[in-house]
Amino acid sequence: xxxxxxxxxxxxxxxxxxxxxxxxxxxxxxxxxxxxxxxxxxxxxxxxxxxxxxxxxxxxxxxxxxxxxxxxxxxxxxxxxxxxxxxxxxxxxxxxxxxxxxxxxxxxxxxxxxxxxxxxxxxxxxxxxxxxxxxxxxxxxxxxxxxxxxxxxxxxxxxxxxxxxxxxxxxxxxxxxxxxxxxxxxxxxxxxxxxxxxxxxxxxxxxxxxxxxxxxxxxxxxxxxxxxxxxxxxxxxxxxxxxxxxxxxxxxxxxxxxxxxxxxxxxxxxxxxxxxxxxxxxxxxxxxxxxxxxxxxxxxxxxxxxxxxxxxxxxxxxxxxxxxxxxxxxxxxxxxxxxxxxxxxxxxxxxxxxxxxxxxxxxxxxxxxxxxxxxxxxxxxxxxxxxxxxxxxxxxxxxxxxxxxxxxxxxxxxxxxxxxxxxxxxxxxxxxxxxxxxxxxxxxxxxxxxxxxxxxxxxxxxxxxxxxxxxxxxxxxxxxxxxxxxxxxxxxxxxxxxxxxxxxxxxxxxxxxxxxxxxxxxxxxxxxxxxxxxxxxxxxxxxxxxxxxxxxxxxxxxxxxxxxxxxxxxxxxxxxxxxxxxxxxxxxxxxxxxxxxxxxxxxxxxxxxxxxxxxxxxxxxxxxxx
Length: 626
Description:
Layout: H1 2-18, H2 24-45, H3 54-63, E1 70-73, E2 82-87, E3 92-98, H4 100-116, H5 129-146, E4 153-158, E5 164-169, E6 174-175, H6 186-201, E7 204-205, E8 214-216, E9 222-224, E10 231-232, H7 236-254, H8 256-267, H9 269-276, H10 286-293, H11 298-308, H12 325-346, H13 348-356, H14 360-384, H15 391-407, H16 413-424, H17 429-460, H18 472-488, H19 491-494, H20 498-515, H21 519-543, H22 550-563, H23 575-586, H24 591-607, H25 610-622
Antiparallel strand pairs: 1-2, 2-3, 3-5, 4-5, 6-8, 7-10, 8-9
Helix pairs in contact: 6-8, 7-8, 7-9, 8-11, 12-24, 13-24, 14-15, 14-17, 14-21, 14-24, 15-16, 15-25, 16-17, 17-20, 17-21, 17-22, 18-23, 21-22, 21-24, 22-23, 23-24
């Protein structure tokens, strides 16, 4: 009946389009409305249950050649499956059931992991329950052959209703993290690390080697369970990540010294050298990261303990970012005075009329363009780094870097945040510095190329110029004075590596890109940052009635952005506003709409992101990511 009903729905929809009563978009809208109504009903009244009954599990296991005497549901957090206990004449079984609901939930879970983590190694988000359980069973069998102690996989089968089962040996054991520290002896730790050493020899990684996935039986023997994220033929980095995960997890239980001693006895100091620089919060799973946050300074203590055992840690101590909240207050007072001057130049009455007639739709587009700039910057950094970085967290880091740049001396905050993030992701100081310099050089190259191209095209085109607004001399004087003040204070040379290093990176960029495997996304991300800023400025101008060509907006913005870093205030405050007003007015944009659009642009790109960026910065600092 359900199939018949669906056939009727789509037959009527096709017929209405065929006779011309509706457009295809009407049909799609109607289907979406119906789906939304159904979703609301399910949300309010609950959805039909797709959890297999114990009788179905019993029949499926019997059909697979394993008759059972009883099946009972286990009410526990099984993360992506429904657990059961099944009792056979020979041995009790632990049964995992994965069906449509678990698969659909797994889609969202894996997509979140894709945005939040690096190199997740998950199966494709839309893989079937059958493939998911067969993958887990296969890796568990390989781990057992390699010498790890894992529950015996008995069978994988389906219930006939789209639900698949994996039956394995039921352990009489408790999780490692449920034991007291005095219950975790050296013999247990040595046994556990010996199994990890055997997995390394077979190039197998668990990918979720937290304490909850280590079960300890009454004889004190550790078992490794939950192989859903495991991977065969692993890289050296993934093998090191597994060791870092277990090292941090066991250190939370028995302390850094005992954890390091056990790992050193089984793996040796040379193996642990590759792991030392991965002892960072971003490398660990969410469960282990929560445990580590409950032990402040644990990761640093682990590095110290490794160094005492002859392990080359090879990390530099990172200096905390020197936040200066007074900077934003001083900048606010300065920009208030400047904006007061700018509004006087445009005419207060005329500016009020322009603002009253503004279009909020264009401002919304400008906000979206400004937000896309952070995503583009994240893409560029991901391409510049030698390891895979998560898009979501890297975007948050770029947002936090923007906040830090407003709260610190110019040029210091953003570079410090990004560098600390790369260190926390597992890069050594040299690799992190190379990634930052590569990103900066790509951005500078794109900016210079776009600046030259835009002004060549402007020179060849016919654009309408107009007289400069009254008071433009004062604006130019303010911009020049701020630039000279910045130069006198040598601020550009104090910012990070300085101008000479930036030009050197730009000169070496072609050679670097030829050797870099992800040169295209690096340049695309760098171009996206510039394009987002130009689009935000253009949307702000159109919102208040100014309708300049995109070429004019790009040319003026790129020229002003070139001299903006000379200013002593964060974000080029003062230089940007004055330069944009004079430049756009000189190229034919009326003064009042130009001033309103520029102020809106600065609101969207400089002031509005401060609050969300502050939250992002605080969150990442708490997680040890920057």
